[in-house]
Amino acid sequence: MSTAATLRARSEALAAQLPPLLAEAEHLAMTILMGEHGRRRSGQGEEFWQYRHAQPGDPAHRIDWRRSARSDQHFVREKEWQAAQSVTLWVDDAQSMQFEGDGSHGSKAERAQVLALALAVLLVRGGERVGLSGFSLPPRRGALQLLRLAEAFSNADHSADFGSPEARGMLPHSRTAFISDFMGDLAPVEAAMAKAADRGVKGVLLQVLDPSEEAFPFDGRTIFESMGGSLRHETLKAGDLRDRYLQRLADRKSRLAELAQISGWHFQCHHTGESAQAALLWMYGALERGR
């Protein structure tokens, strides 16, 4: 089997985990005005966009004298803004993302990967360039790039207990999406967002959690162990930990929301038991608002 065919087969296998989500992405790609035509505005470019009335302060060389000769007013010839938009994705591949609670909704990693891939489909079909943060897969356009993304997700490392965002490779004034459970140390998240802000990068934080991580349905003797096995805690009264756990989780969400607000980003928490379509629509809309 050729490399392209292998990539396509792996991509289809990944996509098949959530057909309704990808069907919705197809529908959105056909009905939402996206890409270059949806982003038309004045700026540096090569193609003519429109004429506008000259205003005080416009230099004489910008006036289109041929168009102005047909009127009693002066007109400026504007060109279309054509700077290609780039979006980088960081999808947490750490061990913690393999958690899937009672198994009825799939793992957090599966949901995060499918959401990221569906978002990439929407963006690529809208003329955007999409890639992974870092230098392994720079932003590009086209169907082949979607296959590369699917291949990268299927070969995720899963070595660390908790993930740390990769801030390298972000182009100035581009956009990015961080998708993670954000259950580890938040210091790397803060550092990555600070680097992004220095480059004028705007983005979204999507926190993906399993419903049991929100409800904490544990009582009596319970052994809590990280997915990688590096952390372990045994208690005879798990119910006594519920209030403290929920408060710490609420504090973590509040901190993520605060970081997003300070940086001009958007934050949302998504549960694997909820509609994947809703999370996809939110991410796409938030990235559009962040331009």
From TrEMBL:
| Any single Pfam family the record assigns to this protein | DUF58
InterPro entries in the cross-refs: DUF58
Domain DUF58, first and last residues per copy: 50-251
Q: What is this protein called?
A: DUF58 domain-containing protein
Q: Which organism is it from?
A: Actibacterium atlanticum
- Give the classification, highest ranks: Bacteria, Pseudomonadati, Pseudomonadota, Alphaproteobacteria, Rhodobacterales
